[in-house]
Amino acid sequence: MPVPLGVVRFRAYRRYEALRVEASNALMGLLAGAQLSNHLLQLNRGSDRLLPEVYPNVPHIRRFNLTAEAASDILAEADVHLGAMSIAYVLALHEDSLKTCLGMAADAELVSRRRARETPSAGQHEALQQACGSRIDGLPLEQLAVLRRMRNAVIHDGGRVDQGLVDAVSALSPAAVLAWTKASGSDPTRLAKGDVLRLGHGEMLLALAVTKAIDRACNGLLQIGLPRDHWIREAVEDALTEHPQAGHAATVLRKCHGFARHHYGPLRLARAEVESELARRREG
């Protein structure tokens, strides 16, 4: 069954989107800041004076008690360190989002609450696909499996490539390798066991792009899998949370239906459906 193209921006999805934007801006800001600082330090390159002497009013500068030349060399490698940290950051946000999706599936009794709660990160996508009765594009999932192995290598193996990562790269389809290389500027098939990973700006962008594609696809799975009455309840509850001061019944209906059209557009919730849910809530 094809996954819908439109995105339903339910409350948790909007929150996740905001966190993604915040993370992306922070990572890019740190990278740009490191490069700007490196550029500034070129003015003092060759000096024996330490940075706290040169810039005494910069907060925490004493923790960076180096000459301008030594500091510049570190900042020149900032994208490598940010690349390693960013993959863990981005994947953590993604895995938390998938927990929310599985929780919604459990609310609709498409999967047990225990499975929704205890499914490990590597099995989240499969669990959601089974619950919703549809499949998503496998290419970004292939790439995600490699990114997850890279994260694990950084966290558990000092950034060294292990056999599991080599095997995950070998399992990539030619299309996935091509897309990876195009997005990141590096060819993952060149990695060998024992190599030290040098993750940078390219891998940071790739992790953001891959998780965004999968998140949108999982949003489509929920559109297919969750019953319509579930979505109606979700939309109305969301609207009433956003507009708690709505006045009489006609105003509530107008606000709720307008909210549903804006944030839940792909579902095409009818005014009569929203009105019926509001009546049910009043009677209940």
Describe this structure in words.
The chain is an all-alpha fold. Helix content is 69%, strand content 0%.
List its traits.
284 residues, mainly alpha, 0% strand
Radius of gyration: 24 Å
Please report the distance between the alpha carbons of the first and last residues: 36 Å
Mean pLDDT: 92
Shape: globular
Order of helices and strands: HHHHHHHHHHHHH
**Helical percentage:** 55-70%
Major β-sheet, in short? none
Percent strand: under 5%
Structural class: mainly alpha
Output the number of helix runs: 13
Secondary structure: number of strands:
0
Low-confidence stretches: none
Summarize the entry for a quick read:
The protein has 284 residues and is mainly α. It contains 13 helices and no strands.
Write the layout of secondary structure elements.
Layout: H1 11-41, H2 51-54, H3 68-76, H4 78-107, H5 113-118, H6 124-132, H7 138-156, H8 163-170, H9 174-184, H10 201-225, H11 228-242, H12 249-263, H13 271-283
Helix pairs in contact: 1-3, 1-4, 1-10, 4-6, 4-7, 4-10, 6-10, 7-8, 7-9, 7-10, 11-12, 11-13, 12-13
